[in-house]
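Page header: ASSEMBLY MODEL / two components / 327 residues total.
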Amino acid sequence: MTALPLILTVFVACAVEAIEALTIVLAAGLTRQWRSTFQGMAAALVVLAAVVAVLGPTITLLPLGALRLVVGALLAIFGLQWLRKAILRASGHKALHDEASAYLREVAAAKAAPVSSRGRVSDWYAFTLSFKGVLLEGLEVVFIVITFGDNQRDLGAAVIGAAIAVVVVTVTGIAVRAPLAKVPENALKFAVGIMLTSFGSFWGAEGAGVTWPGGDAALLVIVPVVAVVSLAYVALLRRYRPAPSLGQQAPAAEGVTR
Amino acid sequence: MLRALKSFGAFWYDFVIGDDWHVAAIVVVALGLTALLTHAAHVSAWWLVPLAAFAALAWSLYRATASKS
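Prediction written out in full:
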């Protein structure tokens, strides 16, 4: 596999996580204080960089077969969880993830919290909110970067994909100074779930000793098949969508099947 | 200390396994069966993991929606 699909997959997955982290950082920075928010963000980025620096090279010490088995299993499990949520959202069984309302919730909580300082941090709430948001969303990015990068023996390409995603989302966020609510986040999550499940199944089976018909080209079949089956599940579940209560509109399947 | 360990474990469980542990169990069993079929029975079981993934997803979606309808 060339580096381009790897970079693109990691880019989309990381962009989704970066958008969620941006929402939290903006809520902390615009409502509380930018200095403490940046301190929290920087502290989280240092922790994440340390995790990549330690785990990335360590995992590559495993034999490729064992690495693919373990990482494939983790990716497939992780991807199926993403896909499960995305299908439930697309079929109207779960509310769509909405950055605008997530932002409003964070802003309301940030406005209500009292100001207290600790050490060099003048607003502890802004610091912890930003730190936790970036660290938790960042851990998913790290997981994807390490699993994809190590499996392809190209950690550099995966890091490039993630870095581009973070830079693009950050620059856009700074430019508009608002959560990126117009990005079709639910559709992106659906796509990422398909990619993680496909790659996880491919690598996991390879690690278990399977030789795929066509080698790496099998992915060109697996990815569309996973997509078609997932869309079929969406169509099936839409038939049994719960009726919306009075005054409440059922969530639409944003950008997935229409 | 014990509380911190518990929350650390709970975080990673939630992070990797998520809302439905059945999905993880089905994937792990499918990979084990694939290894067994490939190495012990010399069957090219490349189809097993994708099929198990679709089954796991269907089962998990059924469990998630059946309780609501």
